[in-house]
Amino acid sequence: MPDSGDAAEAAEPVEAPKPVDAEADAWAKACAEDLAAEQARHRAQYGTPPGSAAEELRKLFDAVADKVGSLQAPMAGMAAQSAVNELINQAKSAVEPVIQRNPEVFDHLAAAGSELLAAYRSAVENHERRWAAKDTTDPRDQGPGGGEHIDLD
């Protein structure tokens, strides 16, 4: 006589594995291949896209260090060149831990800088437009000679 616990377990329906939708897999694979091909074409045409602001800062430090190291300035001398290299290395070592801990900070700073630059450009363009048009309706642009003649007799 079977145990009632075994009968209860045998009576529970066992969930059959769901069939894999081959069409969905083929579609996902085709999309991934198309995306990879488009990214490769874009890289070939425009070069490698810039990385995060933190990665770009690292590249900047490396490029400056390489450039300073490659300069052969006879007047500067070896002492000045080594001092500049030391200064660059100190700056790089001070910034590197911050980059590693908080790389998103540099992305935010870069975005803020872009917004400030856009605001500055907007202000300058508006001022240049008014100046180029020589708008005489604005009393600030008339200067000292823009008043009316008053007869004192």
Features:
single chain; 153 residues; mainly alpha; flat
Please specify the SSE layout and strand pairing:
Elements: H1 4-11, H2 22-46, H3 53-70, H4 77-101, H5 103-133
Helix pairs in contact: 3-4, 4-5
Give an overview of the whole structure.
This protein is mostly helical and 153 residues long. It has 5 helices and no strands. The protein has helices at 4-11, 22-46, 53-70, 77-101, 103-133. Helix 4 crosses helix 5 (103-133). The radius of gyration is 34 Å and the shape is flat. It starts with a helix and ends in a 20-residue tail after the last helix. The mean pLDDT is 75.
Order of helices and strands: HHHHH
Give helix % range.
Answer: 55-70%
Structural class computed from helices and strand pairing? mainly alpha
Overall residue-averaged pLDDT value:
75
